[in-house]
Amino acid sequence: MSEEQIRIAKDLLAEGVGLIAAAGYINNEGGQAIADAASELMDQGCKTLVIDLDGTRIINSIGVSILLEILEKLMDEKGRLAFCNLTPTIAKTFEIMGLVQYATVYPDRLAARAALEGHAAV
Question: Which of 24, 82, 90, 96 could pair with 4 in a Cys bridge, judged by C-beta atoms 3.0 to 4.6 Å apart?
């Protein structure tokens, strides 16, 4: 199986709401790239982050642990984490690992934006 290089894009959706779009294999390098993007958005005042995993088909345990670290940092700041565009396999992995207990999952980016943009300060 060839490991796909991670591609990251980040954007501000609304005041306090940041988006990270990740496509590719989320391993230690891919997870770190997401963590770096999350830190940059949090430094810009984002307390709500949406991680769009459209184009991501596989994540390993190190990738999941890095996402948990991002979640912990956001929770320490009274922030929120959401995911969208999860494959069924990744959704099940997040459920097993407990990520969905503390983060919200949306079917797509449009649903995430609609739910989160008005509630960034919550």
Answer: 24
Of the pLDDT bands very low, low, confident and very high (cuts 50, 70, 90), residue 119 is low
Q: In the 8-state DSSP scheme, what is residue 45?
A: T
pLDDT band at 62 (very low <50, low <70, confident <90, very high): very high
Assigned domain for 1 exists: no
Structural domain contains residue 42: yes
pTM for the full predicted model? 0.92
Inside any domain, residue 62: yes
Cα distances (Å, whole numbers) of residue 25 to 16, 28, 32, 67: 27, 9, 12, 13
Cα end-to-end distance, the chain, whole Å? 42
Is 122 a domain residue? no
25-34 CB burial, b ≥16 within 10 A, e <16: bbbebbbebb
Domain span at residue 63 reads: 7-117
Give yes or no for a contact between 59 and 93, defined as CB atoms under 8 angstroms apart: yes
CATH of the domain at 20: 3.30.750.24
Question: 61-76 and 88-97 are packed helices; what angle lies between their axes, rounded to 10 degrees?
Answer: 60
